[in-house]
Write a structure and sequence with these properties.
This protein is α/β, with parallel strands linked by helices. The strands form 3 sheets. Strands 1-2-3-4 form a 4-stranded mixed β-sheet, with helices on one face. α2 crosses α3.
Length: about 300
């Protein structure tokens, strides 16, 4: 992590007067019953990029340290940065706060870690572009074909559902980009068992079928995921990974896992099947695996 932080230092320069050009606002005095934060944020800005680092030095802490979601959101609203780069040493709660606030104002958010250039997008850029275009058009066709299913699910949710129809989760994509993945919120809880037997059975069927991943087609259309690839990792999974494992996340994840690997039990590491997929990827092999997936081969 030290070399990653050192590279961050070389890429960004400190600009103390980021939002307040005339004077830097004085730091508020802590409440007598409130202890000073043991860790906080160090802010750096250059050429439209904002870097948020974790620091334990109280003299380097920005006024955003220890602030709540509303204050950070209001601060980002007037911040001129178009991209926000987040230090993985920041607490996961604050990572999600920064990502959600940046998304609200149209700013892209990235998690900073070392990335390898041995992934397929860098070794075969043209073939990878063809794959992404095919994924986009296939996803669009699948969305149009499943429109009646979308309407049926939406109607049942309006009649019996007591929770939002979609469940959102922050995931790490290509280049460390943070994005919201969407799935049907069909987990059956103890409160929902007595709501209606038909709707409960429908939720369980949806949860155990591949249809629960249907909203992920929206992520493919937004360029955040592909149809086939490595398993999408949440922020918690990525933070639990080693630096060597994170290097292979420099690629857009897929809706469906690699046919040979099945559903991963441990998402805090890159499996051997995923490593083999990244090292031996080709457009022809991708088409073969998609055919196996569609026809149900193993």
């Amino acid at each position: 992590m030290a070399d990653v932080t050192e590279s961050i230092e070389n890429r960004f320069t400190i600009q103390e007067k980021l939002v307040y050009p005339n004077s830097h606002p004085p730091r508020e005095k802590p409440h007598p019953n409130q202890s000073a934060p043991t860790s906080g944020f160090k802010i750096k800005f250059k050429q439209g990029n904002l870097m948020v680092q974790n620091t334990n030095n109280p003299w380097k802490m920005h006024l955003l340290s220890g602030r709540d979601r509303h204050f950070i959101s209001e601060w980002l609203q007037v911040c001129p940065a178009s991209r926000v780069y987040l230090d993985p040493r920041i607490d996961v709660t604050y990572l999600e706060i920064w990502a959600e606030s940046a998304r609200r104002y149209g700013k892209k958010t990235f998690l900073v870690f070392e990335r390898t250039r041995q992934s397929p997008p860098y070794r075969y850029p043209r073939q990878w572009l063809v794959k992404r275009c095919c994924d986009w058009w296939i996803s669009l066709g699948l969305l149009l074909l499943t429109t009646p299913l979308w309407l049926t699910i939406g109607f049942l949710w309006c009649c019996f559902g007591h929770r939002p129809i979609l469940r959102r989760q922050w995931c790490v994509g290509e280049g460390g980009k943070l994005f919201l993945s969407f799935q049907f919120n069909c987990q059956v809880t103890s409160e929902a068992v007595g709501v209606g037997s038909f709707f409960t059975v429908f939720q369980r069927w949806l949860q155990n079928s591949a249809m629960v991943r249907l909203p992920l087609l929206l992520n493919v259309l937004r360029g955040e995921m592909g149809l086939l690839g490595i398993c999408p990792r949440s922020i918690m999974d990525v933070l639990a990974m080693s630096n060597q494992q994170r290097r292979y996340l420099n690629i857009a994840p897929g809706i469906f896992p690699i046919p040979e690997s099945g559903d991963l039990q441990d998402c805090t590491r890159i499996s051997n099947w995923e490593l083999e997929y990244l090292k031996t990827w080709s457009l022809w092999k991708e088409m073969q695996m998609l055919a196996k997936l569609v026809m149900g081969w193993r």
